[in-house]
Design brief:
The protein has 8 helices and 16 strands. By secondary structure, the chain is α/β, with parallel strands linked by helices. The chain has a single domain, classed as Ribonuclease Z/Hydroxyacylglutathione hydrolase-like (Metallo-beta-lactamase, Chain A, 4-Layer Sandwich), CATH 3.60.15.10. Bound molecules: zinc ion (ZN). Residues 65, 67, 159, 178, 194 line the site of zinc ion.
């Protein structure tokens, strides 16, 4: 069976939106993967309790990609924490997260007047004032972070240019971010509406076939444990034909 010590998938439900950040830790470090929408800090702190952790225990935050529901509460957490936090992201996502480039999918300049008017006041405000933070460590494909036996960075572009997924070697857990979605234990490709390059996204899913994956954590849809490798193979096959 998979060794699941030191890794916990969190579930946050807020405003009829459910997300699954992940926490990985060992004796020295505690790493949070993704931070929800702006205003999610309290919820994150509450669910971290499941792993007997709180925001004060964090040593770092890893951002899988620039989308607003992944970077949203990063600035709040950085402001609230008095300890030093290492912030990790893929090199191609850094200019967006740091605010040097507008976020690809929520750039107000890209909306038609009609699309803009359909947004809630909260989203209008958030898109006009996107969360930003300094990234301290730039990541690349195939790099391994030395935490809890090692997590390998897999560059999985398509949903965004610098999207990364993570493979936790000890437990065989793939943290897929938004490269995969899950519905009732079934893995699915990302939503084409929010994935500018679907072809590249499917090629990224193909990269997963090289890893001995026992379970997948989807940010949207949670943990999938049944026939994971078979499911991944059929996603790649279906799309290639
Ligand atoms: Zn996304």
């Amino acid at each position: 069976m998979a060794e699941l010590k030191g890794i916990e998938t969190l579930t946050i439900e807020k405003d009829s939106f459910v997300i699954h950040p992940t926490l990985i830790w060992d004796e020295k470090q505690t790493l949070l993967i993704d931070t929800g929408m702006p205003g999610y800090m309290e919820e994150i702190n509450l669910v971290m309790d499941k792993a007997n952790k709180s925001l004060e225990d964090l040593t770092g935050i890893l951002i899988t990609h620039q989308d607003i529901n992944h970077i949203g509460s990063l600035p709040e957490i950085l402001t609230a924490c008095t300890q030093h936090l290492t912030i990790y992201a893929h090199k191609e996502e850094i200019p967006y997260i740091e605010g040097d480039l507008p976020l690809l999918k929520t750039n107000p300049a890209k909306f038609t007047e009609e699309q803009w008017e359909e947004l809630s006041d909260f989203l209008k405000f958030t898109y006009l004032h996107p969360p930003k933070a300094q990234v301290t460590v730039s990541l690349e494909d195939a790099q391994t972070l030395d935490i809890n036996g090692g997590i390998e960075i897999i560059h999985t572009p398509g949903h965004t240019p610098g999207h990364i997924s993570l493979f936790h070697k000890k437990s065989g857990t793939l943290i897929a971010g938004d490269t995969l979605l899950a519905t009732n234990g079934h893995l699915q490709p990302p939503n084409p509406v929010s994935t500018p390059d679907m072809e590249l996204a499917i090629q990224s899913i193909e990269k997963f076939l090289a890893y001995p994956i026992k379970q997948v954590v989807c940010y949207h849809g949670g943990i999938v444990t049944e026939n994971v490798m078979e499911q991944l193979q059929s996603l790649v096959k279906t799309k290639a034909s």
